Structures are given as structure tokens and as C-alpha cells.
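Record format v2
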Amino acid sequence: MKLRKVHIENFRAIKETEISFADALGTIRPVTVLSGPNGTGKTSVLFAIVQALRGVMGYRTSDVPEPEELDIHRPLSIGGLSPTPPSISVSLDIEFGEEERPAIRKVMAETNPEERLPNIPNGKVRAIWKYPPERKADGTLKPAWYLNRTQPGDAVPWFHGRKNAINGWTSRKLRDRSLLDKVGGIFLFPQDRSLRSRVMGERLAQDEEPATSSERKGRDLSSLWGVLEYLSNYSRSERTEPLKPEENWEERIRESFNHICAPKEYLGFMYRSDDPLGAPYFKDDGRTYPLHMAASGEQVIIEYLARLTYPSPMNHSIILIDEPEIHLHPGWIRQLYLALPKIGIDNQYIVTTHSTELYAAAARDQALIEMGQLIEK
Amino acid sequence: MLYPSAYPRPGQVALLCEGDLIGYEATFFQKWTGTELGNEPLVDIWPCGTATSIRGISDAIGRSRPIFVVEDRDFRTPDESRDDCTNIRKDRERRDVRVISWCSWNRSEIENYLLKPDVVVPVFRTAFECSEDDIIKTFNEILPALVVFQASQYALGRARRAWEPTDPAGALFNGIRPRPEWNDAKTVIVAPDHDAFRGGLEKNSQAWVKKTHETQCDVIAEFDAKYQLWRNCQWKDDVWRIDWAGKEVLQWLRIAMTSRFGWPVDPESGKREILKWTINREKRDAQDRPIEAALRPRMINQFLEAMPNLTKEIRDEFDGMKTVIRSYQI
């Protein structure tokens, strides 16, 4: 799925704005960069997209708080609140791709055959989310994540594809694993306020545990450490048919990391005699070191690559990245920008930034959206 | 020798080229260095506008970072261009500018590489929803119409080159010094000898006046020669892709294509409108600018994608640049 256009009203810093993610020829850009001074609503755009889709797509994240009254952009008016309290409205013009539509149909047929998928001309759906939510017939409020309206009117099940694919694969209802790679989702990389805890998760706690694997807790797959161990084990596990190169996720992560962060290298998840618990290891100038000793920038890049790979590689997806430049050397930012379109298949990246490097690169690609100047004329 | 400075970019090498901040050169080099060199070394791209500006900016930053310069060859022969670059390099190095390489494109401009069929056809076919034959037919119509312009630009280039030695800046002070010198033994400043300087100046001046009369360039003959050579250029030929001003060819291709196949006035609905171009040059350029901007990244991306399959001559040119930058000991 791709986002062609978003129209936002009364959300956080935004009174009203409309952003097109298509170029002058109408093609949706693989990467769009939003730039502007603080407070112009860059992060609000990303949050608005998440708020509108998180419920219908089953995207669980604690990085975007549940919507609340304070999210409503209220104009200042004499005597307090304006006579008609404004409400948030987010309208998204979504397009499901030609490869994705039959995959979603198959996923739904295998996992939830009762749910009917209506025809959507050219895969286009307009999804509208509002807050405060509407009331049900009994007067109670609908859930905050409720998608108010779609055009065509009954297109909501189209958004259930990825959620059903992952749940279906986990519950073994979905037989064809390749469908997981063909159905798009949504993912947000927030501003890096909690890098260490996100990256390490419970790894630090596990350091206190016995070293033998039989006594260890299960892997913590919410942590980057756990995901990298899982992907490594997946690559190395014995199988009757050899692993296809495109399914060797650890190798693919290694290649991307090494290109972006050269001359540093990601070696993979390793168990060493002095580290029987194992850890993701890196190499730089002949020195090897585990994830927790890696520089913040290395942790950020490896996190991007891993999160876009697990639980299944994100393809045909909308990936939102809020200010990726935090922790990153300008050279790595440039490389990340070049690498993004090659990470996954047919993904759409929407990135906010204050980085002059990203700004320049996007401007040259006609992929820059300026959301305001420091001094408005 | 580099001196410590507050060089305001992260790179280890500064690559100076022509074109504007979001021009073809800057867009290409940003992606090409990122893909081919990565961070080893990290290269900053400095689009400088014109070749003359490159010289000025090389002075500004070439003592803080080693510079790699690529300028347009324009209508110079490859030998002339090589000699020019060697001379400029020596001149800059005398001023302590650290030059990794000072070269020009093998073709006239970067746009000339984009005129290769593997680049221009896929981009224009998609952008104008037309066939390859439509594009070839259009080229075969615009190329003959551009022969006079291209030959005239060549002749102008020859005339400029012929008159370059008459620039008094290099000739009048030849062998004479108007500056004072310092005498360490006496710790005093020593003024130049007025009579010696004036005598030298007079001699140089006379030589310069004589030279301006001697300098000749048969502009008409130069024009005729190229006109005859190029008058039958067609799509299948390659000479125009190498020696013409590619920028002009691409602009007229855009004009012809938008005039016949239209241009999206509403990208969302895909609605196209036929554009009118019977307007003056300023308005024409203004109308063309957003069209060029929209197509530019597509052309560069397609060029990078097609590069491994392009001719050996082109691949060698870019591999050579890569090798020189990489092998330079920073």
C-alpha cells in the first residue's frame, strides 16, 4: 500500500494541511522528506497517519500516544474555547498495488473467509479518521481507533491484510508464507529518545541469568538483540532445502549495514567462548565488539534494518521515520537516504528531518516538502 | 599543505562541478559517489554554477580539503580540454590548492550522457506515455533543426579560444614585478625599480597590441566546417551525443514532447495538457524549468541503472574517476 495524499485538520500543531507524496508525473515517490522549523507539524503528520491507520491495521505501538483531547488543535479565541469545538480529521488517499491486491485476497480467503473484500477501482481507497470518535446507536463512543469512513464505503477489510497475514502465519491458518512478504503494513521509527532500552530490551537483565541455554528465558523478540538472534538462527538452522539468498535475512541486513556504515561491519549474531549468551557483533578496524558496545549510530542503523525485517520483511509498506539524523554522522545519513529505496520491495518512506544532508539529497530528487520557513513572509 | 579550518561539511574530499545546487551534476555525483565510494572516502559535492566559478570556489575550499574537479568540455577538443585542465591545475597548486584531479567530461556536458538510448528512451517513454518510435521520430525532427545553433556555438567557442591570449591580465606583467620584496639581511622592504618596471610594461604593452592584431579566427570557416559535418545527424549517429551541447538537445526534446503528448497539469488525476511554446526565450525557460526538474532525477536514476550496460568508453571514464578519488591518500 502507498499513501498518495494526506489531508489533516486540527491535529496537534496542524490547523489544516494537505501533502501530496506524488511527483509531478503522478508517481508516488519512494522517499519523501518533510522539513521545516520546530513546531511546523512534521512529527504531527507522521502521528496523524499512525492514528488513522493503527486501529484498522492492527499496528501496535507505544511510540504514538493514544489520541486525546489535547491532540485537538484549538484556535485561540477571546473568552476561552471556540463556539464549535473543532475535531481532528485525517483523510488518507491510499493505493494498494497490483502485486499486493491478489495477495491480500488470498490472505483473507485463508484466514478470514467471512470477511468480504469489495472491488476497489485501481486499488484506490480514501480512509477518513476523526477524533473525538462518533457515538454508537446506544450513545456510547466508538473506539478511538475506529476508521470513520472509507471511499468506497465498505473498503475497511482491505486494511486487515497484514494483520491477518501475521496472525494467520502464527496460528498456522496461512499456508503460503510468501504472502507475508507481499502484503504491506505501516511502521513508525520514532525520534530516538529511548534508544538504549529499545535496542537492548531485556538483554541487560539476562546478563544476570545463568549462561547455559537450557536455563535461559525465552528470547525477547521485542528487543533488537532478540530479533537479531532470531534472524541469525533462522539463517543458520538446518533445513532440507538450502536457504534462498533473498531469504537469508541476517546476510541481507549485514550487506545493507556494511554499505551504509562502511568501513564498519556487522558480523552477525555470534556465540563466543567469552560470551556464551551470544550477541550481535560488529567490527571496525580489526576490533570486534558486541551490540551494547556499538556506537549509537550503529545501533540506530542495525535497528532500522532489523525492524524492517522481522517478523517478516516489510514490503509494499508505509515506513515513517522521525528525524533519523539523531545519532548519525552526516555521511551515514546520506548513505541511509540512498539505501532506503533498496530496503524491502516497493516500500514508501516518509521521513522528517532537520538535517541539511537529507534536505539537500531530497531537494535534488524533487522529494522535499518544506513545511514552513523559520521566518514566515 | 592543508591547514586546519572550519570546513563546513563532513566529507574528506570536495568534488567541484558545474551546474546549480539541484542540477544534473550535483544530483548525479551525490548518488554516484554514495553508491560507488560509500564513505571511503566521503565526498562532498560542490556545484559551482560555471567553470569560472569553479576556479574561484577552488580557491575558497581547496586549502581545507583536497578537491576533485570535473568541468564541461563544451566545444573544446579532448586535447585542448586536457591541456586547459593541466594548466589550471598547475596554477591552483601554485596557490597551495590541493588538487586530486582537474578534468572535464569526455563528452560536451553531463546531459550528453543522458542522450544515450538506454537512458533517454525509458524515461521519456514513461513520462509521456508514448512509444520508442515516437521518441526517435522526434529526435530525427529536432536534430537537423539544431545544427545551425550547435555549429554557431562551436564557432563562438573557437573565436573565444583564439582571442584568449589577448587577455591583458596574463601578458602585460610578463617578466616584471610591481610588488615590493623583503630583504631579510637588512629587515627592510625594497620597492620595485620604477624605470625597470615601466620599461618592461611598455615592451609588454607593445607586444600585446601587436598580438591583438595578429590574432585571427575564421569564424565563418569554423561554422561552415561543423555545419557540413553535422547537417545530416540523425538518431542513429553518435557524434551529436558526444560533441553537441546536450543541454539544448534535451530542452528541445522536452518542448517537442510536451507539445505533442502534453504534460500533467494535475498529477493526481493524470490529466495532461498540450503546452504552447511559441513564446520568448525567458518565458520558454521558465515554463520548461519545472518540467526539467521533474524529469531530472528520473534521468539520473536511469543513467546510474544503465551505466553497467553502456559503452566501455563511458564505463572507463567513470571507473577512472572512481579509481583516482579512491587511490588518493587523504
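Chain A touches chain B through 27 residues (CB under 8 Å).
Chain A has a mean pLDDT of 88.
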